Amino acid sequence: MRVQCLTCGGIYDTVLPDGLPYFHTCPPLSEGELARAVAAGKVTLPPGETAADAVARRVYRRALFRDENPVSSPDPKAPRRIVADGRGVQPAPAPKAPPPIVDVPD
Amino acid sequence: MPADLAAAQTLAPFLTPSAWYFNNDDALRITSFNAAASVTLVLEGRYLTLEGSIQPFRFSHTPNTDRTTKSDTFLMGASWLLNLQVRASAGTPRRGQCLAIVEVVRGGGASAESLGTLLEGYVTDTQRRAWPGSPLEVSSIPPGVLRSITGTDPAANVEISESVPTNARWRLLALLATLVTDANAANRDVALTIDDGTTVVGRFPAAQNDVASQTTRFLWTSGGARIAIAQDRTIVIPIPDVWIPDGYRFKTVTTGLQVTDNWGPPQLWVEELIED
Question: pTM to 2 decimals?
Answer without folding.
Answer: 0.90
